[in-house]
Design a protein that fits this description.
single chain, alpha+beta, Alpha-Beta Plaits, four-stranded antiparallel beta sheet, about 35% helix, about 30% strand
């Protein structure tokens, strides 16, 4: 199993664009084979902090996720929407 937590701080002027991009990614990713969980959440305390939680059946399922057009769109557009680089924590469990 592969678990990924990603933390984002969007630019205030780009917040609606950021939310749209991540919402599209989340909706599509949930239908992928091997996706156990895919959540896009807003922090209750810090209103400018967002968290993406991914849980995949295997590393292979996650690798396949990276090939979809909506993921590539996310990858190409995300950096310009953020105040700073996202923090990503990954864990491979058995």
């Amino acid at each position: 199993m592969k678990v990924i937590n990603a933390f984002f701080y969007p630019k205030p002027s780009k917040k609606s664009e950021f939310v749209g991009l991540l919402t599209n990614l989340t909706i599509n990713s949930r239908f992928e084979e091997g996706c156990i969980r895919y959540e896009f959440l807003k922090d209750a305390i810090d209103g400018n902090k967002y968290v993406l939680i991914e849980q995949w059946e295997s590393a292979k399922a996650h690798e396949n996720h990276l090939t979809y057009d909506y993921f590539k769109k996310f990858q190409n557009e995300i950096d310009e929407l953020l105040l700073n680089k996202s923090e990503i924590v990954m864990d491979d469990t058995k």
